[in-house]
Amino acid sequence: MDSTLSRVTADTALYAEVLDWIHTEAELLDDLREREWLENMVSRDVHYAVPLRQTVERSRGRGFSPDTYHLLETYGSLSSRVARNETQYAWAEDPPSRIRHFVTNVRVEQAADAEGADVLHVKNNLLLYRTRQDQSVPQLLAAERHDQLRREDGQLKLLRREVLLDLTVIRTHNLAIFF
After folding, report:
1. Are 91 and 69 in contact (CB under 8 A)?
2. 150 or 176, which is more confident
3. Percent of the chain with pLDDT over 90
4. DSSP 63
């Protein structure tokens, strides 16, 4: 994490608030309460990205493309996806996938100075378990999420999310899900 940030330890009220936010988000997404998630937990200034991963030599970094994405979303595009899922025309997800978000290894940091102190930097590991239709083999997507949460009107909201998938080839028929 960034050296200009200070670690928030697990024994603080702020860490507990972030953890509660993460658990609430997972529950809303698992229960397909996407509209509630979007309107109550996501900032209108959100930047939501899932960059393409390539297998590269160690000397070339972690292999994430700086300009190619599986998903690159704003509040408007997330809102369009949610609205589409609320119609009878969301064929890619009708019937909807059964999803579980398993979020672990939560690390929280906040700005050390007054500038940007309202933004929390949260790293966590995500295991997304997904089944579709009557498939007997589940799809597993593992990733590290880099989130920024900002307090807006007293509530934490998702300002930025970067999902760094462990996979270079995604063996799923669509990405009509929220990480």
Report:
1. no
2. 150
3. 69
4. -
